[in-house]
């Protein structure tokens, strides 16, 4: 597979199929790391890759995890989330993901299948994954802001 560097750009179903063919069966059985670059294109990397490495260290429009399955001889997106602690993108980043998947000709579920909300604690500065709409820091218990506050996460 790829070294711990930039992910593979995916601009067509054929590019995705060729990249997945080089992945082991065990890798294809779990989600992959993805980013949507500022150029609007999808980049993928093995799951244990860091999102920032997948993006080549530059800002992105969205990031998360993505899974594929084969349907009628073609690869289809089965799951996609914004779960990336490197970039902490908001669920509102979905349109960038949708547009990149559409541009690449990949069928997808139409929205994040596992949206995640991230916030930074104003008291202890830890990144938090907000669960069950509980906007409290998991480390110190302080209240978390409702608005996204992870600039330069």
What does this structure look like?
This protein has helices at residues 13-22, 25-28, 51-54, 94-103, and strands spanning 8-10, 32-37, 42-45, 60-71, 74-81, 117-120, 127-130. It is α+β, with helices and mostly antiparallel strands. The two termini are 28 Å apart. It has four helices and seven strands. The strands form two sheets. The chain has a five-stranded antiparallel β-sheet. The protein has a two-stranded antiparallel sheet with strand order 6-7. A hairpin with a 6-residue loop joins strand 6 and strand 7 (127-130).
Mean of residue pLDDT values: 94
Measured between the Cα atoms of the first and last residue, the distance is 28 Å
Q: State the total count of DSSP E strands.
A: 7
The gyration radius over C-alpha positions equals: 16 Å
The number of helices is: 4
Helix content: 10-25%
Could you give the order of strands across the largest sheet? 1-3-2-4-5
Structural class by secondary-structure content: alpha+beta
Q: Tell me, what's the shape?
A: elongated
Order of helices and strands: EHHEEHEEHEE
Sheet with the most strands, sense and barrel status: 5 strands, antiparallel
Oligomer kind: single chain
Model regions low in confidence, pLDDT < 50 over at least 5 residues = none
The portion of residues forming beta strands comes to: 25-35%
């Amino acid at each position: 597979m790829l070294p711990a560097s930039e992910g593979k750009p995916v601009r067509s179903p054929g590019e995705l199929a060729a990249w997945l063919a080089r992945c082991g069966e065990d890798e294809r059985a779990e989600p992959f790391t993805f980013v949507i670059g500022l150029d609007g294109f999808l980049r993928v990397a093995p799951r244990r890759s860091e999102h920032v490495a997948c993006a080549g260290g530059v800002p992105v429009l969205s990031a998360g995890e993505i899974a594929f399955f084969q349907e009628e001889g073609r690869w289809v997106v089965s799951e996609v989330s914004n779960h990336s602690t490197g970039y902490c993108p908001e669920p509102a980043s979905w349109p960038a993901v949708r547009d990149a998947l559409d541009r690449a000709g990949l069928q997808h579920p139409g929205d994040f299948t596992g949206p995640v909300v991230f916030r930074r604690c104003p008291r202890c500065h830890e990144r938090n994954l907000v669960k069950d709409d509980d906007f409290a820091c998991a480390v110190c218990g302080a209240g978390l802001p409702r608005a996204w506050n992870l600039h330069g996460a």
